[in-house]
Amino acid sequence: MDGQGCWLRASRDGEAAVVAVGGPWTVDRAGRLDALARGLRLDGVRRVRLEVSGLTALDTAGAWVLRRTLNELAARGAATELAGVTAAWRPLFDIVEAADRQPHEALRETAHPVLAVLARIGRTVFEIFEESRMLINFFGLTVITLGASLLRPRRLRPVALINQIEQTGLNAVPIVCLLNFLIGIVIAYQGAVQLRKFGAEIFTIDGLAFGIPREIAVLITAIVVAGRSGSAFTAQIGTMQVNQEVDALRTVGLDPVEVLVLPRINALLITLPMLVFLADIAGLMGGALMSVIALDLSLAQFVRRLEDVISLTHFLVGIVKAPVFAYIIAIVGCFEGLRVSGSAESVGRMTTKSVVESIVLVILADALFSILFSALGI
């Protein structure tokens, strides 16, 4: 069979056959090559040798047609052999053979779900360690850059700092106060319901005085800020990364950590303790409202009991945690923003990742603080 200079000839001797091909087997003759290969009829043969020494030109399209022909013959039960392959054509046949083998390897992988789960767990563990290592490195970089900026106060960029204080602090006051006010109501109500069984409803105020300033207010505020400001940091810096604005800063000799990261870290270090203080007040106000309703107390009685059980230590414990939580949220948000790889999908993925990481690390830090304060008797 000949056509457009390319040809295919088959000869048969009982159960053995020899298929010889020649001429140019290239992509510009793909239609003709496909017709030649599909027109081959070798029913009942047990052995087939494909002789390619007559080829004058070959590319991956022609090699793929020949490899497909051998695969089809092998699927019919024939033993196949590729002969006459020169050193020039061998890489092309290796490429198409490797490409043909990949889907089967993928199928073999999915055939072992237990191994696939173990492999996924292993990859996740290594990714966590690598992520932790890079985050620690970034933390050290921010500390060094902050120290260098403190030695040169003109590099602190007060305009950017004030803008970030407004966005992360002032604009967050309503949602932070509202949530903590509602949390105070919930804690007071649930505490009163349970303590009423023992005739000790008055100790609901003790729980509010201890729990809200030390744990609840600072933790809820940090989670809200992580979801609100931490995600904003990642989205803003990530969008700049997509638009190559971060690269432009490096091109003009500016340090992205100094220009983009430090104002956000410093702003959160200033605003989060203030937000925690407001959250303490809002939470206690919510608890006071529900205590007056549920315990049938007057507001004056609530305040007197609160004065007896609350101490400055409880407020200071929450305030001490706030800067640590602020630094965690800020560096995670900025770190993930700088890791955006150049697409809108990457911005969304890294934003979600930064929020999850921030919340997990904040809760972990809060647990470590609780252990430390307990050991110190505070």
Core attributes:
378 residues; alpha/beta; Transcription Regulator spoIIAA; 5-stranded mixed sheet; 12 helices; elongated
Summarize it.
The protein has 378 residues and is α/β, with parallel strands linked by helices.
Rg over C-alpha atoms, rounded to the nearest angstrom:
35 Å
The portion of residues forming beta strands comes to: 5-15%
Quick check: average pLDDT? 85
Largest beta-sheet details: 5 strands, mixed
Written overview of the protein:
- The structure is a single chain.
- With 378 residues, the protein is an alpha/beta fold.
- It folds into two domains: 2-110, 2-Layer Sandwich (Transcription Regulator spoIIAA); 158-376, no CATH class.
- Helices cover 73% and strands 10% of the residues.
- It has twelve helices and five strands.
- Helix 1 (30-38) links the parallel strand 3 and strand 4 (47-58).
- The N and C termini lie far apart (93 Å).
- The mean pLDDT is 85.
Itemize the secondary structure elements and their pairings:
Layout: E1 2-3, E2 6-13, E3 16-25, H1 30-38, E4 47-58, H2 60-75, E5 79-83, H3 90-110, H4 113-151, H5 158-168, H6 173-195, H7 203-242, H8 245-251, H9 256-295, H10 299-309, H11 312-338, H12 344-376
Helix pairs in contact: 1-2, 2-3, 4-9, 5-9, 6-7, 6-9, 7-9, 7-10, 7-11, 7-12, 9-11, 11-12
